[in-house]
């Protein structure tokens, strides 16, 4: 449960960064760090836990769908127009797809870090 709580907090930071930060070198470096934390390069090390050793590549791609679909009710609850909600949802989908590309780098570039 401590592991889950710690990851949830960092997950929240990732959402805010993705929406609010400039996509600069610092942001890019942190995406690479998150990539390694899903891969066996660094999985479990941040929280010093004994969990599965790697999140497999196929799951990284599959997760784009639930992370995109589940955000919509949050975007829709503040009284924005339907057009704005669709626009925000599309921007989010693009940003999640972009980060999934960064996060799969260690899986497809073995040895190049
Ligand atoms: C598009 C796909 C995904 C997104 C957007 C996402 C998001 C995140 C974020 C933001 C973190 C925190 C990283 C940090 O700052 O330390 C994280 C860590 C983690 N995620 Fe994901 N994730 C994805 C895929 C998955 C999948 C498919 C699983 C498992 C089925 C998973 C399980 C985990 C675990 C266990 C950690 C903690 C890793 C560690 O030991 O440090 N993630 N994820």
Secondary-structure map with pairings?
Layout: H1 2-20, H2 25-38, H3 57-62, H4 64-69, H5 72-75, H6 82-103, H7 105-108
The structure holds protoporphyrin IX containing FE.
Task: Describe the structure concisely for a colleague.
With 113 residues, this protein is mostly helical. Helix content is 66%, strand content 0%.
Helix vs. strand class: mainly alpha
Kindly identify the CATH topology. Globin-like
Q: CATH superfamily name?
A: Globins
Point out poorly predicted stretches.
Answer: none
Number of helices: 7
Specify the helix fraction band. 55-70%
Bound molecules: protoporphyrin IX containing FE
The helix-strand sequence is HHHHHHH
| Second-tier CATH architecture | Orthogonal Bundle
Mean model confidence by pLDDT: 93
Number of domains: 1
Termini separation (Å)?
Answer: 31 Å
Largest sheet: none
CATH class equals Mainly Alpha
> What is the overall silhouette?
globular
* Portion in strands: under 5%
> Could you tell me the radius of gyration in angstroms?
15 Å
Number of strands: 0
């Amino acid at each position: 449960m401590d592991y889950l709580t710690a990851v949830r907090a960092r997950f929240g930071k990732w959402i805010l960064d993705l929406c609010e930060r400039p996509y600069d070198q610092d942001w890019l470096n942190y995406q690479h760090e998150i990539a390694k934390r899903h891969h066996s390069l660094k999985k479990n090390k941040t929280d010093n836990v004994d969990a599965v050793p790697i999140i497999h590549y196929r799951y990284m791609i599959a997760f784009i769908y639930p992370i995109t679909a589940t955000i919509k009710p949050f975007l829709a609850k503040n009284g924005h127009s339907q057009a704005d909600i669709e626009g925000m949802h599309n921007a989010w989908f693009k940003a999640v797809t972009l980060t999934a590309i960064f996060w799969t780098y260690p899986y497809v570039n073995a040895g190049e870090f």
